[in-house]
């Protein structure tokens, strides 16, 4: 039957950063996005509010800037190798992230089987493009998407392993039996069955690969 490995992206695969901040670096908007992310963490705005404000600030975003942001991001080492090993074992892997789809789906090229994210129009945004709030993920979306993927692959929640770092991962960590806090904060430290601090996903994966 195998297992389903579910990875968060911001703060997990992307160590100490987020897609929003990496894109902001390319646009000269780092301070603005730091303020926006701080408001989200404080609960001043919700994920939909964050997405709407980000979308407005990204109005002139180009494909070249997205590529530069993705390529220049502080990714953990060993991501491709972990996903290749999962595939070789006949298991499945997915990324579920609240970040924009035009960034997250690029991870498919690295070997992840599924990449689910908040749905944004394709870059560059046209004047006719609109952001649909219904397509923006919230933390609880990770659980419903995990259930959807379980049905797709013929597994159950008992067969899932979750990897995450922060508040947006707590609902999923509570729903599955095995979880790895990757450079995790206080929100996940009490929920995770394993903890890893460092820069190599292979080391975090090794905590559960033999289970």
What is the topological layout?
Elements: E1 4-7, H1 19-27, H2 30-42, H3 47-57, H4 63-71, H5 79-88, E2 92-100, H6 101-104, E3 114-118, H7 141-153, E4 160-164, H8 170-175, E5 178-182, H9 186-189, E6 194-196, H10 201-209
Parallel strand pairs: 1-2, 1-4, 2-3, 4-5, 5-6
Helix pairs in contact: 1-2, 1-4, 2-3
Comma- or semicolon-separated keywords:
211 residues; alpha/beta; Rossmann fold; 2 domains; 6-stranded parallel sheet; 10 helices; globular
Task: Provide an overview of this structure.
- The chain has 211 residues and is of the alpha/beta class.
- The chain folds into two domains: 4-15 and 74-209, Rossmann fold, CATH 3.40.50.1000; 19-71.
- Helices cover 42% and strands 15% of the residues.
- It has helices spanning 19-27, 30-42, 47-57, 63-71, 79-88, 101-104, 141-153, 170-175, 186-189, 201-209, and strands at residues 4-7, 92-100, 114-118, 160-164, 178-182, 194-196.
- It has a six-stranded parallel sheet, sandwiched between helices.
- Helix 6 links the parallel strand 2 (92-100) and strand 3.
- It is globular and about 50 Å long.
Low-pLDDT residue intervals, each spanning 5 or more residues: none
What is the global morphology?
Answer: globular
Spatial strand arrangement across the major sheet: 3-2-1-4-5-6
Order of helices and strands: EHHHHHEHEHEHEHEH
What class would the helix/strand composition place it in? alpha/beta
The largest sheet is: 6 strands, parallel
The CATH architecture of the largest domain is 3-Layer(aba) Sandwich
Radius of gyration: 16 Å
Mean pLDDT: 96
Beta-strand content: 5-15%
Helical region count? 10
Q: Indicate the CATH topology of the largest domain.
A: Rossmann fold
- Domain unit count: 2
Classified in CATH, the superfamily of the largest domain is HAD superfamily/HAD-like
Q: What is the rounded distance between the termini?
A: 14 Å
What's the CATH first level of the largest domain?
A: Alpha Beta
């Amino acid at each position: 039957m195998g297992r389903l490995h579910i990875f968060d992206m911001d703060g997990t695969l992307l160590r100490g950063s987020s897609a929003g901040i990496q894109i902001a670096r390319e646009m000269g908007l780092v301070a603005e996005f730091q303020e926006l992310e701080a408001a989200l963490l404080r609960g001043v705005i919700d994920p939909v509010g964050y997405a709407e404000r980000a979308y407005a600030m990204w109005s002139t975003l180009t494909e070249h800037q997205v590529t530069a942001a993705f390529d220049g991001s502080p990714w953990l080492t060993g991501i491709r190798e972990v996903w290749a090993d999962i595939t070789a074992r006949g298991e499945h892997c997915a990324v579920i992230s609240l970040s924009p789809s035009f960034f997250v789906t690029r991870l498919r090229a690295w070997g992840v089987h599924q990449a689910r994210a908040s749905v944004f129009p394709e870059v560059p945004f046209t004047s006719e493009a609109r952001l649909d709030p219904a397509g923006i993920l919230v933390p609880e979306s990770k659980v419903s998407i995990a259930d959807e993927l379980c049905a797709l692959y013929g597994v159950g929640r008992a067969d899932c392993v979750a990897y995450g770092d922060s508040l947006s991962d707590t609902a999923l960590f509570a729903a599955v039996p095995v979880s790895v806090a990757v450079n995790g904060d206080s929100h996940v430290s009490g929920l995770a069955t394993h903890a890893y601090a460092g820069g190599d996903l292979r080391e975090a994966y090794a905590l559960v690969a033999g289970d």
